[in-house]
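Morning run. Coffee first, then this:
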Amino acid sequence: MYSRWQLAQKYIRYYLTASNGKGHGIHSPFVYEFITHVLNDDTEYEAYQQVEALRKGMLSDKDIIHVEDFGAGSVSGKTRQRTIASIARHAAKPEKWAQLLYRIVNYYQPETILELGTSLGISTAYMAKANPHAYVITAEGSNAIAQEAIRNFNELHIPSVELVEGNFDDTLPSILRTMQVVDMAFIDGNHRREPTLRYFAQIMAHTHNFSVIILDDIHWSGEMEQAWQEIREHPRVRLTIDLFFIGLVFFREEIKVKQHFTIRF
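And here it is:
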C-alpha cells in the first residue's frame, strides 16, 4: 500500500492531468454520455437519504465485533476486534463513491450485479436500490461483518440481496455458476495484483458486450496499478475510465480502437 504522502502526490498528478469532468474535449460519444448522464447527474434520489441515515447511525455505533480479514495486509484467518463505527468510517465506501455506484446502476440498469467485498453493505444497498428488480449477489469474507450487513439490508427493506460468506477464492466459482451471466461487477476486496487479475478473469468469462466491471482502489498500491494496467491491455477490454479511486471497464465491441480515459471526479 502506498503511504498517504505517495497517494497525495499521485492524486495531485491525476487531478492536474485528467480530463475535466464536464465532458469538454471528450470525443467519445459513449464517454460523453457517461459524464453527462452518470457522473454529473445531481438528482437527490430518495435512496441517498435512506442509506446515509443508516450510515450515520453506524458511525456512532461502538459495538465491538471480531473481524476475520482475508485482504491485502492481513494474515488469512487472523481475527481482530473492531467497532462498527470504525468499519463504517474506514471500510465502507464514502458517500460520493457509493452514490456514483447508484447512478451507474440507475442509468445502465444491469439485471445481474456481483459485488466482491460487502463490508457493512453500504455500496450493496445503493446498487440494489438503484434497480430493485436486479439479482444482486455480494460476497464477504468476515462472518461477523456479513451478519451486520444482513441486518442493514433488512433495515433498508432490501430482501433481494443474496450474501455469500467466505474467502473469495473459495466462493467466487460457485457464485459465478449460480449467476451464469454478469451484467455488472464491483470488485472491492483483497487489493493485490494476482487475486485481482484472477477475480477479473473469472468474472469476465461471464460477461457480455454490455457488461461493466468496476475495480476499487486502482491506485492503492503498486500491485493494484500493475493489475489495472494489465486489465487495460486485455484484448477483450475496449474502453476504460480511470476516476483515480475506481476504474471502470467496458467490453463494447462496437468500439474498434481501444480507448482509455482519465477523468476528474
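Confidence is low (pLDDT under 50) at residues 73-77. Good start to the day.
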